[in-house]
């Protein structure tokens, strides 16, 4: 079993920055590559970015490349999503997930005002 708790979502203005976190517990954190996903109202959940289990490789959706950064801290069992140059279309509930598993957190709401 894996427990995931996302936090840090809030209302920000367009062009602003925000870091959200995902605390992971239950199984060995370092065993999983981790991903961030988001779901906007009326849309399907989409992949945002991911990081390898070692943290050495990251990859991103084209829509966020150059603006978002995924990182992980093994000492804290936490994965982060740093977001900059935020746009109103980034508004969504953001979820983290150990890739290749069926576990999801409850999500954290990020709202970008124009």
Describe this structure in words.
- The protein has 114 residues and is an all-beta fold.
- 0% of the residues lie in helices and 49% in strands.
- It is built from no helices and 10 strands.
- The protein has strands at 3-7, 11-13, 18-25, 34-39, 46-51, 58-60, 68-73, 78-83, 92-98, 108-113.
- Strands 2-10-9-4-5-6 form a 6-stranded mixed beta sheet, with no helix packed on it. A 4-stranded antiparallel beta sheet has the order 1-3-8-7, with no helix packed on it.
- Strand 4 and strand 5 form a beta hairpin.
- The model has no long low-confidence stretch (mean pLDDT 95).
**Radius of gyration over all CA atoms, rounded:** 13 Å
How many strands appear in the DSSP assignment? Answer: 10
Order of helices and strands: EEEEEEEEEE
Shape: globular
Helix content: under 10%
Alpha carbon gap, first and last residue: 40 Å
Individual helix count: 0
Q: Percent of residues in beta strands?
A: over 45%
Mean pLDDT equals 95
Backbone structural class: mainly beta
Oligomeric form: single chain
Widest β-sheet, arrangement of strands: 2-10-9-4-5-6
Instruction: State the low-pLDDT regions, or none.
Output: none
């Amino acid at each position: 079993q894996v427990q995931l708790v996302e936090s840090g979502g809030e209302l920000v203005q367009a062009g602003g920055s925000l870091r959200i976190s995902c605390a992971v517990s239950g199984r060995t954190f370092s065993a999983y590559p981790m991903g961030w996903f988001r779901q906007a109202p009326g849309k399907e959940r989409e992949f945002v970015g991911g990081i390898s289990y070692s943290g050495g490789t990251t990859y991103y959706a084209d829509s966020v490349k150059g603006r978002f950064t995924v990182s992980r801290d093994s000492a804290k069992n936490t994965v982060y999503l740093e977001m900059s140059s935020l746009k109103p279309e980034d508004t969504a509930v953001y979820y983290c997930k150990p890739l290749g598993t069926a576990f999801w957190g409850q999500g954290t709401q990020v709202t970008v005002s124009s």
